[in-house]
Queue: 2 jobs
Job 1
Amino acid sequence: MNKGKAFYEGKAKILYATDDPDLIIQYFKDDATAFNAQKRGTIQDKGIMNNKISEVLFKFLETEGVPTHFVQRLNDREMLVRRLEIIPVEVIVRNLIAGSLAKRLGLEEGGLLSRPILEHCYKSDSLGDPMINEFHIRALGWATDGELREIEALSFRVNALLKDFFDRRNLMLVDFKLEFGRHHGKVYLGDEICPDTCRLWEKGSLEKLDKDRFRRDLGKVEDAYQEVCRRVCG
Ligand code: TMP
């Protein structure tokens, strides 16, 4: 597999073409941003840990029948993935009240929701990923009705699977963000699943073991990623 040119650089990853038009390489950086990149920093070895954590989680989801873009991990910072036509929507699933939900509705962080909440945001850095709903997505032609139903079913299934997976590792899956795309007409789960994109709290102590340590200057940022990596990959 020959690595070609970088064709996209995001805040946490770089995407490279390969000699196979169906496959690309996803490179994980140590760069961290928050609040629409107003806050920037580096989390030592984050790229290595997120690559490994994402590998384990994608493999687990695949064995449970969830189609993901993951093909194989190539080295410390790179994984080979299917090239997706990205649907420009971030899907957020919430099990507990936290983050922007707490802020938007004036609710205290930590409350358990009686059922999971699904939210959609338009994937646009310049607009700050504004929240939208399924009517926007259909009316603007970003996804069809059938694709939206598939995305919803996959998101709730991923939630049930990951909640249980993390629970067995003494972690609560508070909320997380997913991205989807099309590959030869079929919907696949893309991007990454890691402490950048999930809120993970230690059961009992409720200690935060995710990117909120960076966002909120809580300290021990690297330690949190390492601890999640140890429990997920160990
Ligand atoms: P929020 O509470 O800030 O809306 O975040 C919900 C979840 O989505 C949280 O687990 C972190 C994740 N997330 C991302 O992956 N990327 C983002 O740009 C944002 C704002 C949140």
Job 2
Amino acid sequence: MKFLKLFLFIAVISLSACKTAQNIVEQAQEPNLKEMQGGMWVPSELEGMNEMEMQILGSKLSAKDIYDTDAPSIKDAIVQFNGGCTAEIISGQGLILTNHHCGYGAIQSHSSVENDYLTDGFWAKDLSKELPNPGMVVTFVVSMENVTEQILTGTESLMGPELEKVMQANREKVKKQYNLSRDQKAVVKSFDHGNQFYLIVTEDYKDIRLVGAPPSSIGKFGADTDNWMWPRHSGDFSLFRIYADKNNNPAEYSEDNVPYKPKHFLPVSTDGVAEGDFTLVFGFPGRTDEYLPAVAIDQIVNKLNPDKIALREASLAIMDKYMRSDEKIKIQYASKFAGIANYWKKWIGESQGLTQTNAIEKKRAQEVEFQKIVNEEGLVEYQNLLADFDKLYQEYGEVTQARDYWIEVIYRNVELLNLTFQLYQLERVFEQKGQEAFDQEKTTFLKRAKGFYKNYNPQVDQEIFAKLMYMYDAKYATTKISEQGRKEKWKNEAAKIYKNSKLTTYEGLESILNGNNKNVLQELNKDAAYQLGESYAEKFYNELNPAYYTSKDKIDALQKTYSKAMQEVFPNRRFFPDANSTLRLTYGQVKGYEPRDGVYYMPVSYLDGVIEKYVPGDYEFDVSEKLQELYHKKDFGNYADTNAKMPVDFIGTNHTTGGNSGSPVLDAYGNLIGLNFDRVWEGTMSDYNYDADICRNIMVDARYILFIIDKYAGATHLIDEMTLVNPKK
Ligand code: ARG
Ligand code: GLU
């Protein structure tokens, strides 16, 4: 039934061919392009609604061009990159493109003081210079199939463990129907809050080598100040290559491996983009919650986000203070700072966006309508859904917040307490698996700890401890004490613990862990930091986590029913299953937006903006001499825009989220025109409430990528490997 509207659009389109007096009627029914944007669609189910919407928006592609299991299709060029991001194949020799921030760990791992690829960039001159990355994988999606009916067969009257048992048996049965090749895996994944199931066949390639990366002053230009912001000027890309064995099959790293020959690769378009152009983003979005009730959004905006933001803000302020006054601390804490700041900034934008677009009120209004229809149509099973949500979310809010505090303070921000939490797990290894397992774990633990202490400053951490433990205590403690008294208490506690604990240095940790085993645990349990950490670890496992999951299970069960109910009650609304790290597609248009009254943001940024933002020597806004020179000489090769300027980034209405980093942006013909890497601040609420008016994804223009590879790095052999096209010219 959700196709109803589209049939109307189609009717309108064919009617408009004959210019009759019906013009007025037709205009009233002109397809509303805005309504066709938003959504993360399942690639194996594009025929019908999605295919039509895309074509109305300007696409020339058929559903089968995008996803086909009988012939090569665009999906064969898209991979999940190392479990988190997305990457795409852009040559016949397995060359893949992803973000700089997705390749960051790998680039860092090959860097040293002499060869600082993060600072200077890296370009392999030929295949022999490409750098292997042990442990890295890319995952292809071989096929996705809706198997809901099979999974639910025979489950109609079952509940609880019985239901689980039958479903588990059905899962196994479904998987057995597939003839998997040696390297393929099949999983049954739940979609739409457990209302649908898909069988997904995947194939991993494990020899992935670093081919090229621009310097961070290009790849991460603007760093945290510009993160989640438009106008943006980063060239957030890096290049890798998939290697295979002689038969083109997956293989562990070997010198004998050869570049992978893809079924399909993306031609790169040099046409560029203009406002209104069709854009398609294809990748692996991690998680969205588009169908929450108003009460949940209210809780995020008014209860959960503010405290998480405040805790991170306190921690960031302390780090920032030390980073500004000490060069060594600046380097030690740069990556930690970026990690904490990323979601701190996102949550602020998210809350503002939800508030400014009246998301809560809009959801409430929808719920009134929902309830009205449920009552009118006598859908008794849905009668109490919303009231039940209101009740359950009371409890859920409390347990979630308590767990959030724990996670932010103990796990995310106070490094010493995070370390004690890991040591707590290590102690369990001894208890549960015995001495041999413990000894093994201990060795790896110490190895990892070396890396940790390299970037650890106990003075910074002590101050964060004092501040955040005070905030945690002020929220939950039952003892009555003045504000000032509580601050003093934690300051003193911090001083005592950081002075007495051996865990603030590697040598101290090693001296504890390298005794004989009886002593190890005794020694550990004598340590001041460990004693405190252990009590918090136990609180987490015995109290906070169980309470959270008990409550969450109830909410999830209700959300499953609500999701199904909404689709029945609003048959004309577009529903897409929430993101769950599976391959999805989202389409839209290149488009500017109005962040506030009287301000319009243009959709394309240029190299001029890089030069405008340039702050010599600054760690976020420095610009290399080479790039300045290219700019001043206007040495842009064939990559400039029609206005003779060098484009850098652009924005569009594609509905993306974390995990879409590195996703290709395709034009109407399936050519690569950009690389997704971020969203605009005002629109980060799209995880809960996509709004085509202000939700924008941010992409690097493919021409900037080509320009950097060609003119900046001189890696013309990589350009030669690609297929450049210009279908518009
Ligand atoms: N905001 C982007 C994302 O969510 C980019 C993050 C990396 N960049 C940074 N400056 N921290 O992952
Ligand atoms: N930077 C995000 C990522 O790493 C993508 C931005 C977003 O959340 O949309 O996946």
